[in-house]
């Protein structure tokens, strides 16, 4: 004989989240066997008189009991531990703001007969109702800002209400967390961010001020350093300018002396200029001597031409009374040459040194040797009638027929 189908049945297994722990309700008959049940579920049998007989797992009634006890129905109750999570919105002291209560409970049927007798069909809803009844009056006395204190007193109120669900045969353990609403939390977050920003701003402001001070000090130090360097550079430029001015003045003085020195010799020409050239370039000695001989012959020729023109009379010549003295001098010279003994030929004077070429006659210390041959250098001049020795020629005597120039500037 087949068993009768259950009047109430939940397709639930061990991991199914349950709101009602009664899994099945089955009507019993004396002529129909009991339907197979899970071994971990409790069985609650009801009698005609309204009594309840409980068989906790793994106990099960025998066939004799099923036949003799006259049970009318059986409740299969899940005795496992389940969780119930809920979020409640309860009014605070100000009706405009509500606390957000997070409820996290675990429940278990420990007295199946009591639960069946209670008639509860939704355990999480029952727990929310019990918690709300316990804490609502408490939260009405606190403002939104006092959420921590309100949570503490709400927990005390739940403890004072006694074990939840005990009348329904439940073992309940609840955890409660109180939070302000989202608007209040957002406002608190903004205030906290503002406070953090203010706290962060103060050291940042001090740091920025310090950075500005250091930057100003650094800029001032750099400016002073640049100013000092510029002053030193200007002083060095001034000293260089003074040195260049002094050098230019010295160069101008040297150039002026050189110009005066060169002009002295170049203005006089003749032996002086050639001696200057010989002093500068000793290798040109032969060329200088040849030029001196040519200049000497040219000077003697010019003097002879002038003398002949002067003695010859005619236009440009001397008058008759002006020729007496030249004729007398010429006669005396002829007489001395023809009548007097021929003097010994003196040694040829050595050529003057290069350094003394400008001075001329100063190169010789002996008066007899310092005589420079003139146009008639072949013989010595006649001795006067007194018999005295001829006086030495002056230091500035003629050189190769030219009068010696004055001393050059030093």
UniProtKB/TrEMBL annotation:
Residues 338-410 are annotated as: Disordered. This is Uncharacterized protein. Residues 354-368 have a biased composition (Low complexity). Residues 344-353 have a biased composition (Pro residues). It comes from the Bacteria. It comes from Streptomyces lavendulae subsp. lavendulae.
């Amino acid at each position: 004989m087949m068993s009768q189908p259950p009047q109430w049945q939940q397709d639930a297994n061990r991991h199914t989240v349950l709101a009602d722990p009664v899994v099945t309700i089955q009507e019993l008959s004396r002529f129909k066997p009991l339907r197979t049940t899970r071994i971990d579920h409790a069985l609650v049998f009801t009698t005609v008189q309204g009594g309840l007989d409980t068989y906790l797992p793994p106990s099960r009634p025998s066939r004799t009991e099923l036949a003799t006890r006259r049970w009318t129905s059986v409740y299969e109750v899940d005795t496992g531990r389940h969780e119930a999570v809920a979020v409640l919105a309860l009014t605070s002291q100000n009706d405009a703001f509500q606390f957000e209560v997070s409820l996290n409970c675990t429940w278990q049927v420990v007295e199946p007969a009591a639960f069946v007798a209670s008639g509860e069909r939704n355990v999480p809803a029952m727990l929310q109702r019990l918690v709300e009844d316990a804490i609502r009056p408490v939260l009405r006395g606190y403002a939104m800002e006092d959420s921590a204190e309100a949570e503490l007193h709400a927990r005390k109120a739940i403890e004072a209400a006694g074990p939840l669900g005990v009348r329904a045969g439940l073992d309940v353990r609840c955890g409660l967390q109180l939070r302000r609403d989202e608007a209040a939390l957002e406002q608190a977050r903004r205030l906290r961010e503002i406070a953090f920003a203010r706290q962060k701003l103060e050291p940042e402001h001090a740091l920025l001020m310090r950075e500005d001070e250091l930057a100003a000090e650094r800029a001032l130090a750099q400016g002073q350093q640049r100013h000092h360097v510029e002053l030193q550079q200007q002083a060095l430029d001034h000293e260089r300018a003074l040195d260049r001015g002094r050098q230019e003045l010295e160069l101008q003085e040297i150039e002026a002396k050189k110009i005066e020195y060169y002009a002295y010799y170049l203005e006089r020409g003749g032996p002086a200029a050639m001696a200057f050239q010989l002093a500068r370039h000793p290798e040109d000695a032969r060329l200088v001597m040849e030029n001196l001989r040519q200049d000497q012959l040219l000077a003697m020729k010019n003097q002879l031409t002038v003398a002949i023109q002067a003695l010859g009379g005619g236009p440009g010549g001397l008058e008759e009374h002006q020729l007496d003295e030249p004729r007398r001098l010429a006669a005396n010279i002829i007489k001395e040459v023809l009548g007097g003994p021929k003097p010994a030929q003196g040694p040829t004077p050595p050529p003057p040194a290069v350094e003394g070429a400008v001075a001329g006659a100063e190169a010789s210390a002996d008066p007899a040797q310092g005589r420079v041959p003139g146009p008639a250098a072949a013989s010595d001049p006649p001795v006067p009638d007194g018999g005295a020795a001829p006086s030495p020629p002056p230091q500035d005597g003629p050189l190769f027929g030219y009068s010696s120039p004055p001393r050059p500037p030093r």
